[in-house]
Amino acid sequence: MDSDQAALQLCRQSDAFAVYNVSNPSIPILISVPHAGRDYPAGIIENLRLPADSLVRLEDRYVDLLARGAVAAGVPVIMAKYARAWIDLNRDEQDIDAEMVAGLDRTELPSPSAKQRGGLGLIPRRLSGLGDIWKRSLEREDVEQRIGMVHRPYHAQIDQILSAMRRRFGAALLLDLHSMPPVDDKIIPDPPRFVIGDQYGRSASSRFSELALSHIRMSGFAVNLNYPYAGDYILRRHGRPAANIHAIQLEVDRSLYLDELLREPVDGVARIAKLVTDLTQILADAVLDNDVPIAAE
């Protein structure tokens, strides 16, 4: 059994994420929601240095609600259930801060990413303005188990679904759904309420990004491309435009669907969920369009 097959076997044994509408998809679109999780395993609470409610800052708070309309419409979706504080599915599995793991030598790992240096690696280490999250170091075996039981199965499932879509439809597209804090207008004039990321054209054909930008603008919202968020590991890992597997990220301003404290959903959820559902159909139509060339793999 190869590593991907083993990961998929673990997926069936894990409740760390959920998949919907993937057995016989009618469209070549998969929505990924990697930071939706609100389940906190006991190991998190026991080791917390900070108040438990501070971990909400790591969540893409209730972003899963924005994908529920798409699920109901039959769109394939994969959605995290475990909290990002347990493991961040949008980081490389080697993006580990060696100083927070007992028995791990820094020389075993690649150079730290900018996100890891800021405290937000594979397992978050600190929160800005609050300091370190954990009271004690993690055991190496614990980190390896989180990777093997959650991270690898999640990405193996995405690989399997996108590859099956590509074989069936000739192409596939991953829409990686996130939410962002409101952008400060002192930092970015006329701040965007949405951001489309495609790794500056490396993870998807520009055609799909342009369609997404156009749909959001026509819906009445300011939107940017790749700034301030261009996408991270999921786009780098799964976007292969030369093989007709594309990946774009969608960031949604939380103030569009959460209350003033950015904690609880408000009536705006329905409007934004419809926008997301409509966007998946627009992107699906574009993927199915004969203008998309089929590359040999």
Automatic annotation (TrEMBL):
Matching SUPFAM superfamilies: Zn-dependent exopeptidases
Name recorded for this polypeptide: N-formylglutamate amidohydrolase
Organismal lineage: Bacteria, Pseudomonadati, Pseudomonadota, Alphaproteobacteria, Sphingomonadales
Species, as recorded: Sphingorhabdus arenilitoris
UniProt-listed InterPro entries: N-FG_amidohydro
